[in-house]
Amino acid sequence: MDENNQLQLEKLLQSAPGGFANLAFDDMLTILYATDMFFALIKNVTDKVNLKAPLALLRIVYSADIIYVTQQLAIQKHRKDNMFTLNFRTLQQNGSFKWVMITGIRTEEVYLSGTKTVPIYSCIAMDVTDMMVKYKKLEQTIDYQRAITELSKDLYFEYEIAKDTLTFSELFREVFGKDATMTGFRGRLEKTKMIHPEEQPAVVGIYNSMMSGRKQARFELRLIPKDGNPCWYICYASIIFDENRNPYKVVGKLSTMNQVAKDIEPKAPDHKLQIDTLTNVFTKESAEFLIKEAIAKQGMKSSLCAFLLVDIRNYKNINEVRRSIQSENILTMVGEILNAQCRTSDIIGRIGLSEFVIYLRDIHSDKTAYDMAERICQKVEALYSYEHTKNGITASIGIAFLQGEQEYQTLLTNANAALVMAKKVQGSSFEVFSGTINN
């Protein structure tokens, strides 16, 4: 190469963003040649660079990152694409850190380092501080979430529909003694011995309904862990849609019943709990059973409980339109609203065609029930909210309070009396049975 071309090449290299360098791939990554831009990036600008003696790149790396860089170098030695990638921190004079990424490609030249002959790489450097700071924060967040998940007794899961693969958090292996990842889940569901035989048909039915378009599910089932003793769980599952609104994943968790509702026995010898398949809340019989049991255990406790009767009005004609156009039942969406607003310890049941009951245990004050009733009214009205029609969906709610001993039938009668008053209002509203307000 003649002198003129050499000068042009030198100018081109000097102007390269981030700088250019030739590195010997020895133990210290010796810098054989580097532009001023390269040195300005990896060293403090005020540092003077001695070009007479080769400079070791690893001496510039922040001391706490040496092991991290050494691990990267070990991985690079096994690469077969003749490429080289390395990132590290350098400490600046103002006490801040700068993240530098160096990428390069192997040349045909070699360098004699002591008694070893090592390859030479042509490299460029980039300032990736902003990107790495964000990445490290994300990494810390993921580690934090993973730690919280591992400390929780809940079993989180993710089902990839296309791959037919179900994956649980690692706690699953500890509890059930099986691999946390299950391939071919669809075929294994009807044959698995992990689900109690009495609940298995219902679980298969719920799975099929979600594969057919159901968006959310909440149901109870017994699972058999490695110790062989069946344990009751509540399963929460939701469909995740892709950018084209196609379902591609189901995410959810399994929570042990004694953790979610310690004061409620999930199953009694003479009663099998049932979930209403349309609304995904308890059936009338199951809700009544659980509420009566909760009232009996309440006894003479001083804590306050609330009993809400919710009636969905004007839904029939609108439901026919929504079902024919969007294949959705309004009562299913009402069930989703109630499940979303209530705690896992609350009891929700469908006791009529469009009538629901909610039992709130151990609330701080009557305002808790008022706030919930207000939110339910707002959410229900939003299901079909048009300004120029009087036929929108509305919710009428009657509230009765329990503090101390009281019968289920008395609560139901009191809440129904409040509901009658609420229905006198044209739109959504709630009323409270005055005889049970704790003044």
How does this model look, in words?
- The protein is an alpha+beta fold.
- The chain folds into three domains: 3-129, PAS domain (Beta-Lactamase, 2-Layer Sandwich); 152-260, Beta-Lactamase; 277-439, Alpha-Beta Plaits.
- The protein is built from 13 helices and 17 strands.
- The chain has helices at residues 3-14, 36-42, 66-76, 129-151, 171-176, 185-189, 200-211, 257-260, 284-298, 316-326, 330-341, 366-382, 408-422, and strands spanning 20-24, 30-34, 55-56, 83-91, 97-113, 116-127, 155-160, 165-168, 181-183, 216-223, 231-241, 247-256, 304-313, 347-350, 355-363, 394-402, 429-432.
- The strands form three sheets. Strands 3-2-1-6-5-4 form a six-stranded antiparallel beta sheet. Strands 9-8-7-12-11-10 form a six-stranded antiparallel beta sheet.
- A hairpin with a 4-residue loop joins strand 14 and strand 15.
- Helix 11 runs antiparallel to helix 12.
- The chain is elongated and about 95 Å long.
- The termini are far apart.
- The model is unreliable at 259-269 (pLDDT under 50).
List keywords for this structure.
13 helices, 29% strand, six-stranded antiparallel beta sheet, elongated, Beta-Lactamase, 439 residues, single chain, Alpha-Beta Plaits
